[in-house]
Specification:
Layout (H helix, E strand, L loop, with lengths): L16 H4 L5 H15 L1 H7 L10 H13 L5 H10 L1 H7 L11 H12 L2 H10 L2 H4 L6 E10 L7 E3 L34 E3 L6 E3 L8 E11 L5 E7 L5 H11 L7 E5 L6 H9 L2 E5 L12 H4 L2 H9 L3 H9 L12 H26 L1
Parallel strand pairs: 1-7, 7-8
Antiparallel strand pairs: 1-5, 2-3, 4-5, 5-6
Helix pairs in contact: 2-8, 2-15, 4-15, 5-6, 8-15
Length: 366
C-alpha cells in the first residue's frame, strides 16, 4: 500500500541537536578536545571583553564556528551562517539549540580585532597540544620546518609605484583612465617590492616560487612539525622574502619548551652556512637537505653519516601534507583577508584545525 505524502510535523519537539548526531561521529571526539582547550582560555577571554554593557556572542561559539568552516571547506562566513541555520550537526558543535537564532555575519568582523589582540589562535593551538592525552603523542626531540606561499587577496594591477605612481584624480600619470579593474600595460616596466606596493594589501609581496614560475602577490606561512606523528606545534606568517623561511624557523624554535638538543629537518632552501651555524649555536642538529647545485653544502659528513639524518629527510616531507590540507580543505590557497595580522591569525587557527582532524584516529590508536 502506498503511503501518503503528508506533512507529519508535530506541534512540539523534544529532540535535541545532540540526539541527532551519531555516537561514533568524528566531531564528538574533536568537540571534547576543543571544549577542554576553550575552557583553559576562559581567563584570556575575560580580559578581552568589557565587564559592563550588552553581552556579546560567546567567543567560544565563534571559534567553534570558524573551526567548522575549516573542517567542511565552507567558502565564506556568510555561507557558514547560512549552513548553521539549517544544519543540526553544525548547531550542536557550535553550541546552539534547535530554536536559537543565528547571528549576523558581521559578528565575525566586529570580534576579529578583539581576538587578534589577544593572539587567541596561537594560544588555542598551544592549549590543544598541552592536553595530557595529546601531549603523549608529541615528540620533544625531532622536528621539521617548512614554508609555503599563500596568494594574497589582491590583484597584480594593484601593485603600483610607491607614493606617486598614479594621479589623485583616478588616472595614471600618462592620463589613461584608472577606473575599477582598468587595463594596465606592464611592458618594459620594472617592478620590485622596494619601489612598488599593493594598494589593496600593502603587506603582500611580489614573489615567485622558483625559476620559470610567475610572480604573484603572496604572504609566506611557516609550520613547525614534530616528527613522531606529524602534528603541527607552531605556525607563523611573515612577508614573502628570500630569507623569511630561515628567520621564521629560528623564531619558532625559540618558542619551544626546553633547552635539550633537538634535530630539525628541512629542505634545500635552508642549506645556508649562516643558518646552519645559528642552529648549532642553539643546540639544534641541522638535518637539512644538501644543496649541491653549483655550490658547496653547509651540511657535511659529521651530520649526514648518522642514520637519523636519513630518517629526518624521509619524515620531513610529511609537512607538505599539512600545507596541502590547509590550502585545499582549509580554504587558504588564496586568503580571504588582507594584512599580515588577519592572514596570520586565520592560518594559525586553520593549522589547529588540521591537528584536530587527525587527533581522533591518533588517540584511538594510541
Amino acid at each position: 500500500m502506498r503511503g501518503g505524502d503528508l506533512n507529519t510535523a508535530a506541534l512540539f519537539s523534544y529532540l535535541s541537536c545532540a540526539a541527532r548526531v551519531p555516537a561514533d561521529h568524528p566531531l564528538r571526539a574533536i568537540r571534547v578536545i576543543v571544549d577542554a582547550a576553550l575552557e583553559g582560555l576562559s581567563s584570556e577571554f575575560e580580559t578581552l571583553y568589557s565587564p559592563i554593557g550588552r553581552p556579546s556572542i560567546a567567543p567560544e561559539k565563534l571559534l567553534r564556528a570558524l573551526l567548522l568552516q575549516a573542517f567542511y571547506s565552507v567558502r565564506s562566513e556568510r555561507q557558514l551562517m547560512e549552513q548553521l541555520d539549517y544544519n543540526l550537526l553544525f548547531r550542536w558543535f557550535v553550541g546552539l539549540g534547535m530554536d536559537a537564532p543565528i547571528w549576523d555575519v558581521t559578528v565575525f568582523t566586529k570580534n576579529r580585532e578583539r581576538l587578534l589582540a589577544g593572539d587567541v589562535a596561537a594560544k588555542f593551538l598551544a592549549r590543544v597540544l598541552n592536553q595530557p592525552v595529546v601531549k603523549t603523542l608529541l615528540s620533544d626531540e625531532h622536528f621539521s620546518v617548512d614554508g609555503t606561499l599563500i596568494e594574497a587577496w589582491a590583484s597584480i594591477k594593484s601593485f603600483t609605484p610607491r607614493g606617486g605612481g598614479e594621479r589623485g584624480d583616478g588616472a595614471a600619470e600618462d592620463g589613461a583612465p584608472k577606473g575599477r579593474n582598468a587595463e594596465r600595460d606592464f611592458h618594459a616596466e620594472k617592478r620590485s617590492n622596494d619601489t612598488h606596493a599593493s594598494t589593496t594589501d600593502p603587506d603582500a609581496r611580489l614573489f615567485r616560487k622558483g625559476r620559470g614560475k610567475e610572480a604573484r602577490l603572496c604572504h609566506m606561512d611557516h609550520l613547525l612539525m614534530e616528527n613522531r606523528h606529524g602534528l603541527i606545534v607552531d605556525a607563523t606568517l611573515t612577508h614573502a622574502t628570500g630569507t623569511a623561511e630561515r628567520e621564521a624557523a629560528i623564531t619558532m624554535l625559540g618558542r619551544l619548551d626546553g633547552r635539550h638538543r633537538i634535530t630539525l629537518g628541512a629542505d634545500k632552501a635552508y642549506d645556508v652556512a649562516d643558518f646552519v651555524d645559528r642552529l648549532r649555536a642553539i643546540r639544534v642538529t641541522p638535518h637539512v637537505a644538501q644543496n649541491l647545485t653549483n655550490r658547496r653544502s653547509a651540511i657535511d659528513r659529521r651530520t649526514t653519516r648518522h642514520p637519523g639524518y636519513a630518517v629526518s629527510q624521509r619524515i620531513r616531507k610529511r609537512i607538505e601534507e599539512a600545507f596541502g590540507w590547509i590550502k585545499t580543505s582549509g580554504g587558504l590557497r588564496k586568503t580571504r583577508h588582507r594584512g599580515n595580522p588577519r592572514v596570520g591569525w586565520t592560518f594559525t587557527l586553520t593549522a589547529a584545525a588540521c591537528n584536530l582532524i587527525r587527533l581522533p584516529k591518533l588517540l584511538a590508536a594510541a
